[in-house]
Structure formats: C-alpha cells, structure tokens
Amino acid sequence: MTDQVFLGSDIAVGHNNSGPKEPAARELPVGVPQITFGGPDHYPDDVLARLTDEATEIIARYPQSRSALLPLLHLTQSVDSYITRAGIEFCAAQLHLTAAQVAAVATFYTMFRRTPTGEYLVGVCTNTLCAVLGGDEILAAAKEHLGIGCGDTTADGRITLEHVECNAACDHAPVVMVNWEFFDAQDPESTIELIEDLRAGLKVQPSRGTGGLCSFRQTERLLAGVPEEPGQ
Ligand code: FES
Prior knowledge:
Elements: E1 6-7, E2 10-11, H1 45-59, H2 69-80, H3 85-95, H4 99-108, E3 120-125, H5 128-132, H6 135-146, E4 159-164, E5 176-178, E6 181-183, H7 188-199, H8 216-224
Parallel strand pairs: 3-4
Antiparallel strand pairs: 1-2, 3-5, 5-6
Helix pairs in contact: 1-2, 2-3, 2-8, 3-4, 6-7
The chain binds FE2/S2 (inorganic) cluster.
FE2/S2 (inorganic) cluster binds near residues 129, 130, 166, 167 and 169.
C-alpha cells in the first residue's frame, strides 16, 4: 500500500486491491483545501484481529453493513485517538466501501478527528447563545491557561482543546463538553478548575447523567458499542 492523500472528493493515491477501484487522482483548483489523513497505514496483527472481531459483531446489528460505518469509525478512533489511514482502510474493507466513501463521512462529522487527541477532549461552545453569555471568554481563558490553541494538545497528553458549535444545550449556556459529556453554565474560573481537576486525575461529575467521565479512547469504544478495555 502506498501513502494516501485524500483530495476533496477524490483519493489521490493508493488503495488495497480487495475493494472497489478508486477514481483516478486529479489536481484540485488552486485554493481548494486538501484533506489528508495521517498516522499508520495498517494495524499490527493483534490489533487487526481484535478490531475485525469487534467489527463483525457491530456489523451484525444492522440490516445493511454500510449502516455500521459510524460505529466502526468510532471503533478505529479508539485505537489511535484519531482517524488514521489505517482506520479509513479498515472501515472500507469491512463494509465493502471505497476509501473515498469512508473519508467523505469521516470528514463530515466533527466528532471524527484528524489529529491525535489527548485523554480529555475539552470543547468550548462559542456559538451564538454561548458566545453572548461568555463562551468566547471561556475559550480565551482556557487557551491562555493551557498555553495551547484550538485543536492542540497539552504536552502531558491530558487535554485537547477545541471550540465547538452549538450542542443543542443552549438553555444551559455557556456549555463546555469533556469527551462529549455536558458541563453546563460554565465561566472562565469554573472551566479552568475543571481542566485542572482533569489534569490532576480527580473525578469530575458532568451536569447530566449518572456516570463520571472515562478517557477519550474509552468513550470512543462506548460510542462504537463495544465494552471498555482495561488500561486505556
Ligand atoms: S449555543 Fe452553545 S449549546 Fe447552543
């Protein structure tokens, strides 16, 4: 397999020989952003065997195999903490899709990340109502406190910061999410306290639900519908 670069709706280079053929690569007009997936292009044998077993179980839940694409993307994201070339190829092979079809879905949903993610993905909503009620100030304070920008991860690997669009929780604005669990009615001080508790390994309680938080990778396994894995 060669390196792969996904260009808009086409895949430029490389595909395994088992699935449908990809369209030929073509140059994009100047100014059109290239979308790429990095990371490993294959899984170690033991990881591949486990993923294949789990994917078989997930696919069996759906009348049509391609309906399992979202959980399979979450499953692969639990391995490397982001969607890699190996993840795209794995999903394509399991579901008899092209890599371009998988990439199109993976780039549509913002829950699928293209860079490594820390143990806790902290998302600050900066959409209209949250912004009016202080979301921008929360994000600015978090950036300054952590010394990182949006999409970046702290050197200790604990926190990835991002801004998120409306989470449909506007009546609890401003909202911060950690691994997609809600923390309602936040302000800069409470958010920094939350972040420091996470970095210190303290238990934090989301505003809703009865459970606590698990790591990003474990969250991805839960979203895929497979059991948590010890030690992740
Ligand atoms: S604007 Fe933030 S949850 Fe809707």
